[in-house]
Amino acid sequence: MKNGDEPRLTVPRSAIHTEGAESYVWIVRDGMAKQATIVRGREIETGVEVTQGVKDGDIVIVAAVVALKDGLRVRTDQSGSTFGKTQTAGTK
Fold first, then answer.
1. Over 50: is that where the pLDDT of 85 sits?
2. I need a labelling partner for 54 at 20 to 30 A (CA). Which of 1, 7, 29, 60 fits?
3. Please, are residues 87 and 28 in contact by the beta-carbon 8 Å criterion?
4. Section 59-66 average pLDDT
5. Dist. CA 74–CA 13, nearest whole Å
6. d(Cα 52, Cα 9) in Å, to the nearest integer?
7. What is the pLDDT of residues 38-56, one digit of tens each?
8. Nearest to 88 by CA among 17, 15, 18
9. pTM of the entire structure?
10. Paired strand residues for 17
């Protein structure tokens, strides 16, 4: 890392949804969709830094989330899911 930058947990901008003052993403936990409230950090080239709400390795659903609700069973294969693409949250 250059200039003392620490690794940052990032998610794509398209994965973040907002209702009022609250931001959230959809993650896959135990084979089910779960809405996870997040705290946004800086906007960076690779997406948006997330300081709370998801952890490194969480599977974040990034597409076709209109049909999702908490507890809905989903199937993922890292190239897509029943309801759209997924991406593993990670540090950049």
1. no
2. 1
3. no
4. 78
5. 21
6. 9
7. 999 999 888 899 999 998 8
8. 15
9. 0.75
10. 24
